[in-house]
Amino acid sequence: MERLKSIDIFRGIGMIYIMVGHMIDWWTIPSEDWLFNVYVSLFSALGAAGFVFISGVGTMISYRNRVEKVKITSNYSTKTMRKEYFIRGFLILGLGLLYNGIVAIQFLDPSVIWKWFIILTVAASLLLAWPLLKTSKLCRIIIAALIWILNQILLTYLLHFNGEANFFGVLFYVLYNSLDQNPILSFLTFFLIGTVIGDLLFDFSALDDDSEKKRFLKRKIIVPLLACGIVLITTSFWFLLPNLFTEQILTINTNIWWLIYSLGLDLIIILILLILEEYHIFNRKRSFRSLFYFSYYSLVLFLLQNLNYFLFFELLNRYNIWYFIIATILIYDIFLRFMYKKLEGNFSLKVQIGKIAKKIANKSRIEKTLN
After folding, report:
1. 45, 186 contact by CB (below 8 A)
2. pTM value?
3. Where are the alpha helices (DSSP H) in 252-297?
4. What angle do CA 25, 250, 24 make, to 5 degrees?
5. Peptide bond into 125 cis (omega under 30)
6. How far apart are CA 122 and CA 96, in angstroms?
7. Number of domains in the chain
8. What would the pLDDT profile of 301-347 be if each residue is shown by its tens digit?
9. Residue 48 structural domain
């Protein structure tokens, strides 16, 4: 199917949010920590939640494309597709653990080796979601809701064992280390709902008749997403309000009201982007090119932007920080444009991981055939 610009714009915005959030957290002087609280309160749905959500969208579109490939290609089987999927997931998992290990060494804290930074969360979501990709959209929605219910029950019980050297203490560490990051049971739901949206977008793109596409867009995308988004946001906002603009917002990633609010906002954002794209309010080929680069190189950027930590650590105030943030984003933009012209996919970790996964899966298939 044709590459949807909306997905790149969403992921690009999310990547910029993560980068800016880290710069605010790292660079502001200690007396102005409140600035980070305000930033997270206003835009946190675009961060890890949005990133995992859009990863689910992209994963389902990729999965559906490969299912079609199995149907029309004799030398590409369901077994090869499954191997390719899991190899890709484990490669991302390895990258996540490597990243965690470097952070653990940097801060001399071994517990960080298993910490739910975004790369680890995306990898775990990929691996856990595989059995559900063949199920119906309704089934995935129900399972996603049940995961959040289970999450609240487990967290309430296991929180008492935090830091203890027993079975429940270890289980808390595995599932929730740490609450200010992106615990899997909080974020797997975003991924699964993303796969539902990916299903809808694939079916929409497969239509050839323009009138049928418009009817599908209105009835099965615009109306459901708008209704669900509004209901989720309005039912959760008032419960979430007391935590906004306070330090509580920094450990809210397991708060059920924040989770519901963020999911609703993600649905509304992707809906707005789809409407803008499908009604040609922005140009498909030229608009928002910078956001494409931030999306295409998102995995590389997540690793590179950690170098920003050392630039102006706790040196800037609420006013001058914005000059340095804007300048930094522009420098990254120029750098990514240059790398895309020179290397294109060769500089993208996502592309390279995909190539490696495909090569290993095909190699094992060929070796089995020869034997």
Report:
1. no
2. 0.93
3. 256-278, 289-296
4. 15
5. no
6. 9
7. 1
8. 999 999 999 999 999 999 999 999 999 999 999 999 999 999 988 99
9. 5-370
